[in-house]
Please model this.
Amino acid sequence: MMKKVISCFLILLLTTSFASAADKAPRKPTKKDKCPVCGMFVYKYPDWVGEIIFKDDSVFFFDGAKDLFKYYFNLKKYNPKKIQADIDSMYVTEYYDLKLINARDAFYVIGSDVYGPMGNELIPFANEPDAREFMKDHKGKKILKFDSITPRAIKSLD
Model:
């Protein structure tokens, strides 16, 4: 009997922990939303949209992963009242499926011959095999995961 109670408690605890850690659902930019980095209207570039959603439910849209990372690395400049710990969710548009995927889980090809709205761009993929295929087909230089992307790597794209 005690094992059943402990098992039920553990299941409840795990379920609650995962539910509270879930990312906020992605949103769609309106015609009024501008990229806070470059000022472009984001809705004009639906194939490149990135977004950061904060815990307070505020959301910022970007016209590509590159500008999302510029914002992320320099919140003090673009949104001085926020810190990275305030971020709940981040999304980028997957290159092949054109669906928003978790930015922290994506594979990014850097240095390819494919350009986004702001020129050289990080190209996001949901899985590594697609990123490798794209890199081979489009002269990409490297595949990076979220944690290996640095401000220096982003600056190299400008």
Remarks:
- Residues 35 and 62 are 5 Å apart (CA to CA).
- DSSP finds five helices and nine strands in the chain.
